[in-house]
Amino acid sequence: DRLHESDLQWIVCTQIQRLQSRDQIHLHSGARTLDETPASHFLKDQYLKYVGWTLHDRHAEVRLKSVLALQGLYMIEDFAQQLELFTARFKNRIVEMVHDKEENVAVQAVKLIS
Questions:
Q1: Which helix (H) or strand (E) holds 29?
Q2: How far lies 22's CA from each of 17, 25, 26, 92, 102, in Å?
Q3: Which member of 10, 29, 65, 105 has the lowest number of beta carbons within 10 Å of its beta carbon?
Q4: Which residues contact residue 8 at a Cβ distance below 8 angstroms, ignoring those fewer than 6 apart?
Q5: Buried b or exposed e, range 31-42, using 16+ CB within 10 angstroms
Q6: Cα(91)–Cα(109) distance, integer angstroms
Q7: 76 in helix, strand or coil?
Q8: Does residue 44 sit in helix, strand or coil?
Q9: Nearest to residue 109, comparing CAs of 65, 50, 76, 53?
Q10: % the chain with pLDDT above 70
C-alpha cells in the first residue's frame, strides 16, 4: 500500500498549499497525519480529484508525481474497481500525457497505461 504513497502525499500537500495560498479553501487539522494514512484512504474522491487536476499542472514535476502516484494505486488489484470512475474521467488526459513535452513524464505515462 505504501509503494507510491509518498507521491500521493506530495501531490495532496502541494495542491492544498496552492489552494490555501489562493484562499480558495479552508482546512481543518485532523488527528492523523498523512504519514499514518494508508494508501486506500487516497482512493476517496476528495484526494483523487487533486491527483486528476495535477495531471494538467504546468509543472512537469507535479505531473510526474501524479503519474507515479497513480502507478502505485493501479498496481494494487483491489483498488482497480474503486478507480473506475477516476479512470473514466481522466483516461483521455493520461493517454495525452504519452506525448508530454517532458520525456520522463511521457515515459511514466506509457508505463501507467501498460
A1: none
A2: 9, 8, 10, 28, 27
A3: 29
A4: 39, 42, 47, 51, 69, 72, 73
A5: eeeeeebebeeb
A6: 11
A7: coil
A8: coil
A9: 65
A10: 63
